[in-house]
Amino acid sequence: MSCLPRLSQSLRARGYRVTPQRLAILEALHHDGHLSPAQVYERVRQTGMTEATVYRTLEFLRANGIVFAAQREGGRLTYELAGASHHHLVCRACGAQVDLEAAAFQELIASLEQQSGYRLEASHLTLFGLCPACQKDSKAQA
Amino acid sequence: MSCLPRLSQSLRARGYRVTPQRLAILEALHHDGHLSPAQVYERVRQTGMTEATVYRTLEFLRANGIVFAAQREGGRLTYELAGASHHHLVCRACGAQVDLEAAAFQELIASLEQQSGYRLEASHLTLFGLCPACQKDSKAQA
DNA sequence: ATTCTTATTGATAATTTTTGCAATAAGGAA
DNA sequence: TTCCTTATTGCAAAAATTATCAATAAGAAT
After folding, report:
1. What share of chain A is helix, strand, coil (3-state, %, to 5)?
2. Which tens digit of pLDDT belongs to each residue from A53-92?
3. B111 to chain A: nearest residue by CA?
4. Same domain, yes or no, for B113 and B94?
5. Which of A29, A112, B61, B99 could join B66 via S-S bond, C-beta 3.0 to 4.6 A?
């Protein structure tokens, strides 16, 4: 429970403000891990906050690298606190999710940054595919 | 212009139907490359098709591996025909986009599939980061 | 503690995306 | 070709997401 104060300070240092709404959302994410915007709203509506604020705040936190937006099926997003560096494998058929250590990617990422000049967010990638279960009953072979 | 018939046959073989709406959307994507749902609708509205149909069809094509959904800023999607294997680097600040050859990933992907048992869509990844220009005027350093 | 600047929120409207269901039409069978 | 089955579409309403703008409040300065 020591990361909230640290994040607050980080925000203030950049000229942003630490509001009750932002704290409430951060706490919700800290407590529950992955949450969709709707789920976040459920957990903070008691504070009287608007849905619009939830969306804006999540986007704000994402743009500042404080939370990550992981893609779920069909373009829907779930947000989570930016913490340990890891990646996601998501089954596009059933939505099952697997977390991966990030180490394997470091080399590749470095080489891509070199080639492109981009500084990449290498800590939270999402790859799509078919999980073992769905590979069986899949009728998709192009 | 030989891929449309091939896709049609592929759909029929799986028990789906080849409708004018699906063909129109595929042609639009084939002609223009990356398109958002709204842009697709613009290009096919002459046919009398509904927006709902555009969304449903894009999702249908995506779920069947015929088109890819590339993430743009803030969760918005753009669709493109599944064709040449390549990846995207997207600047999260300005939205600039760079395409990459897929070759570099093959090795890593194979190893991930081995570890996880997933069969991954290795042909269209989207990585986010900061392009060279936006790295300069960025005030974000945690 | 008080004032001041302006980032942030709430309220509301606009826009985008999804859903439910009856009507339609693709494609196989007769 | 005609008939049948049912996947697909259109229509309309619901839900989700984003934008606008005046009012509020965080945090620095006094």
Report:
1. 50, 20, 30
2. 999 999 999 888 899 887 665 557 889 888 655 666 766 6
3. A104
4. yes
5. B61
